[in-house]
Structures are given as C-alpha cells and as structure tokens.
Amino acid sequence: MQNLTYLAVLEPSTNGSYSIYFPDLPGCTSFANNLEEAAHMAAEAASLHVYSMECDKEEIPIPSVNLPKEDTEGNVIMPITIHPDLFRIKKDNERIKTNITLPAWLKRIAEKQNVNYSRLLETALIDYLQIPVSDK
C-alpha cells in the first residue's frame, strides 16, 4: 500500500480559522475552522487532489522534506499522510445517482413487485459488460 506524506501549510487567521495549501500540490487548497479540523480537511484535500491527478494520468509529485522560509514563517506546518490506494478504492466504489427513463407501465409493474432499480441495473450492467466477478 502506497503512503505519501506531504507538508501542509496552515495560514492562521485572526478568528482562529486556517487556510490550507500544499506547496508540492499546486492548486490543492482547503479551509478549516480550527487546528483539529485542519488535519482532517488537509488530508481530504490532498487525497482528492492526488486521486484527480491519477485519473488524469498526471505525474504525482514527490513530497518535499523541507519548505522554503516564505511558506513556514508565521504559519503552522503539518505533515499529512495520505493513502492513495485506499482513497481510490473508496472513490471508485462510491454509489452515485444515475437517472434513467422507463415506460410508465413498466415502472408501475416494477413498483408493485418492489424492484430495487439500483441493484437490478448494477447486476444487468455487470452481465452486459461481461465483467468477471473477480474485477468487481
């Protein structure tokens, strides 16, 4: 299992909240109301950012060990360890809503028989696409 630890820069605000960014992950930012929440939000942002990069076939940046003075001065630096493989499995297996259209008569009959449309469609797609059970 691959783990990556990036250094998150937490810029404190006067109200106790934090802006979060990762020098090694340009464009990866977040926000938190407090330091405890910042750790969670930073991990979620970095995980999603790396996942998106993987989906786009982009090269994943190697984490830095040190940051330049302009990133550290007056800020909180927090190492954030992410688990891209686990996050990918989680995201790939999330249930997403998909709208379909059916003739009204067919929908009435299916509802009378308590058909689970999601399960039926999933099973039908697996069969139709000939996806082996081991790939599920």
Quick recap:
The protein is of the alpha+beta class. It is built from five helices and four strands.
| End-to-end Cα distance | 19 Å
Largest sheet, order of strands side by side? Answer: 3-2-1-4
Give the CA-based shape.
elongated
The counted number of beta strands is 4
Q: What proportion strand?
A: 15-25%
C-alpha Rg (nearest Å): 22 Å
* Helix-strand string: EEEHHEHHH
- Average pLDDT, all residues: 93
Number of helices: 5
Main sheet record: 4 strands, antiparallel
**What helical percentage do the residues reach?**
40-55%
Low-pLDDT regions: none
What structural class do the secondary elements suggest? alpha+beta
Q: How would you explain this protein's 3D organization?
A:
The protein is 40% helix and 18% strand. A four-stranded antiparallel β-sheet has the order 3-2-1-4, with helices on one face. It is of the alpha+beta class. The protein has helices at residues 35-55, 69-72, 84-92, 104-112, 117-128, and strands at residues 4-12, 18-21, 29-32, 76-82. It is elongated.
Explain the layout of strands and helices.
Elements: E1 4-12, E2 18-21, E3 29-32, H1 35-55, H2 69-72, E4 76-82, H3 84-92, H4 104-112, H5 117-128
Antiparallel strand pairs: 1-2, 1-4, 2-3
Throw out a few tags for this protein.
alpha+beta, 5 helices, 136 residues, four-stranded antiparallel sheet, 18% strand, 4 strands, elongated
